[in-house]
Amino acid sequence: MPVKNFFATRWGIIGVGTIIGILAPLLQKLGNPGNMGICVACFERDISGALGLHRADVVQYMRPEIIGFVLGSLIAAYIFKEFRPRVGSSPIVRFVLGAFAMIGALVFLGCPWRTLLRLAGGDGNAILGLLGLIFGIWIGTLFLKNGYNLGRTQPTHTTAGWMLPLIMLGFLVLMIVFPQIPNEAKSGVLFYSLKGPGAMHAPLFVALIIGLGVGFLAQRSRFCTMGAIRDAVLFGQTHLLSGFISLILFAFLTNLVLGQFKPGFAGQPVAHTQHVWNFAGMALAGLAFALAGGCPGRQLFLSGEGDGDAAIFVLGMIVGAGFSHNFGLASSPNGVGPYGIPAVVIGFLVCLFIGFTMRKKAV
Amino acid sequence: MATTVDARGLSCPQPVIMTLDAIKKGKDKEIIVFVDTDTSKENVTRAAESQGCRVKDVSPEKEGYRITITKD
User: Mind listing the pLDDT tens digit for each residue in B19-36?
Assistant: First the structure.
């Protein structure tokens, strides 16, 4: 029998949720934006901005947490002999799902992780986001019950599994070669924000080390915020959900201790109060995550253990962030962007099309 | 005879859906599930046990695992 993986036990996943719940508000204390200690969607959007894929000047920063997530997972996967390079399960569909997941998340202004962190920080608008997330995932489970799947992966060359980790390593090198220069919006090839959330960040190496740690633990525990809700709805299983709940609980307690808990709806950091679109944006994201088989964090951890299809989803999200800001789809604290609403509608149509048509039984 | 489920190459939650289907619908007392990741191994084992089944054996095989589940 293979050695039992402690992190895959009930206490393991609760422990990992607890650690993330404590570290995220701490990252906020160390400089990250409000209720955004960790936000996979926001941070990938900031990376997109740092690379100049969009030019929204308030959200440009090469977030070391994301780099750490992928590399931490890669390290864990190698240590525990779980690195399995694999590709070929509908990569283009995953790319499109990633792009629309990002578009939906940026209408709400956060990924599932940030939904929990916003709740834990007292942001009432996140209640609508959470309900939307559950609704979107519930639609996804209906497709899953009816045979929806993206087909099988194939084992492949190690190199293929290394592509996203190497890209992340490349991003880290860029950050070190072209560090932020005070009052300069550009350093070498990288864009930096002078104001707004993109200008708020914890010190590089602290963020990187926390990212590596979270990536390592999440790879071991299979922590997934979408899976938490999906498994509860689909199978009545509460394994992943217990990690999800411990994250909210400990983020809430940590926020109380750090004086970061501020209940209310109006004036919450990087948030708007258009309830319908908070709900609908996150419903779109939830559906896209459910169809792609993992929350945005989980997609990073899977990429680290060699899943080339999850890597394509990640790239879809980064490109989706470019579209979001270039096309005016993303919300701001003033409300939804000029084209945000039609984008959510189109996103739903695309996801439903994928869900209804990709039902060939796996052979 | 045992029912065989080949969930190799499939991502979450397919291996669990297929295993639960085999447990609920299959007539055989024994179900053998092939998976190719540790995550699927853990998920399938957990799901089978939640259905009151016994996981008789988990053995490494090629690029993955062979899980033997018995129904009571």
Answer: 999 999 878 899 999 999
Confidence of residue A1 (pLDDT cuts 50, 70, 90): very low
Most A-contacting residue of B8, B11, B45, B59 (CB-CB within 10 A), to test interface: B11
DSSP A262-323: --BSTT-TT----HHHHHHHHHHHHHHHHHHTS-HHHHHHHHHTTBHHHHHHHHHHHHHHHH
Tally of CB atoms within 10 A around A88: 16
d(CA A288, CA A136) in angstroms, rounded, equals 8
Spatial contact of A277 and A131, defined as CB atoms under 8 Å apart = no
Test A5 with B38 for CB contact under 8 angstroms.
Answer: yes
Whether pLDDT at A107 is above 70: yes
For the domain covering B2-70, report its CATH number: 3.30.110.40
DSSP assignment letter at A123:
B
Please indicate, yes or no, if residue A362 is contained in any of the structural domains. Answer: no
* Strands of B30-35's sheet in order across: B2-6, B30-35, B64-70, B54-61
Q: Is residue A363 one of the residues assigned to a domain?
A: no
pLDDT at B45 over 50: yes
CA nearest to A328, candidates A341, A313, A315: A341
Distance from C-alpha of B27 to C-alpha of B1, rounded to nearest angstrom: 9
Task: Flag whether pLDDT at B48 surpasses 70.
Answer: yes
* A37 close to A23: Cβ distance less than 8 angstroms: yes
Domain residues for the domain of A242 are 3-357
Cβ <8 Å between A231 and B60: no
- pTM to 2 decimal places: 0.97
- The residue with tokens 């590089």 is A204
Domain limits of chain B? 2-70
